């Protein structure tokens, strides 16, 4: 049997994190008949097919499954692997059912006909950060996932194993929109020399937009970046600075922060009950994002050196700790690790081999069922709004002992030892379970980030020693 594997689905990128191996990141695209198909991630569950350049129709669900299967192969796993998939937190039940049904056509994603476990990427990301650098086990944790298609804000109850309270999707800030804004900025600088709207220029704009995306990622690490501009009859280089990028992001970022406050107010969560504010996703690598969050939440802001990988790493932890638990339902309700373990104060920074990302088939083996044209009894009443269904109501606990361990699946009680080792840029997360009665002392104080927050090495994670420590 291969080592456990965690997959994460993003609008821009797919990530695979396998025990003992470097994570693999690939664009959310598929080559097909001389063309590259994209845009299927946000179309999962849509009965209207995607149409390629040659007029061929493709079901987004099957394209998504094919892309995930390719990630399984590239990560070196097989049909015997334990797999968990982190899915976007804002996806509704109908979307999850569509993906689960499509998985049944692919043995690697549905061993013995049972689809692998699907977990909200908000829950998997919080699971990874609970393992390292550590999260509180009381209060409400606010997770901001800055992705390529938008920003998701999830409020989660730390006492209840990070059970989601509400997820809000904010479309004002996304990696794709930042790429487009940076492209417009560059074109403004060359508009006197070339007509970007001209027919001859249209074909070159796609390549220029990709250069803008790369420059955006570079500006997460350096102060300036040069963008080569090659348009018909015009070739030059435009230099952009981090300050210019910040100016493009400032307004949409403010909209995200306003929505965070509105979400807390809407759910009647007092600021004192917010024990941590967490940033994940590729956009969390942008210095302005971490700076604004650190300024507003000085004592509770948490992030990691590679925020684009957090969801996949958390999914791998789920896979390692009993992927067969809840497999019949497919959607995991809570993570298996909620305690926060201490991190050495002088932790060495991560290896630079993994530069943090800054966002940015139709061979059906089963026939389609006859469509039902009546009222959908499973329709999501919040499908047309930016907020998903409220799945829980937060009630602050006043007891002294957190009891989230009571929610562990009974299947894990008899487990003697589970080991997960996930390498991230030359460092590792090691999670073990043994019979030693000595347990680490959890901390309820989150990592305090500076501007930008100091990275914390994964090599300093102290493993839980008994199942009750998970």
TrEMBL record:
The UniProt regions of compositional bias labelled Low complexity, in chain numbering, are: 437-451
Q: Which InterPro entries match?
A: ATPase_NBD, Hsp_70_fam
GO molecular function (one): ATP-dependent protein folding chaperone
In the UniProt record, the signal sequence range is none
This protein's record includes keyword Cytoplasm:
no
**Positions of transmembrane segments:** 411-431
For the region Disordered, give the residue spans: 363-384, 437-470
Q: Which Pfam families match?
A: HSP70
Does Methyltransferase count among this protein's keywords?
Answer: no
Q: Which domain of life is it from?
A: Bacteria
Q: What name does this protein carry?
A: Hsp70 family protein
Entry keywords, A to Z: ATP-binding, Chaperone, Membrane, Nucleotide-binding, Transmembrane, Transmembrane helix
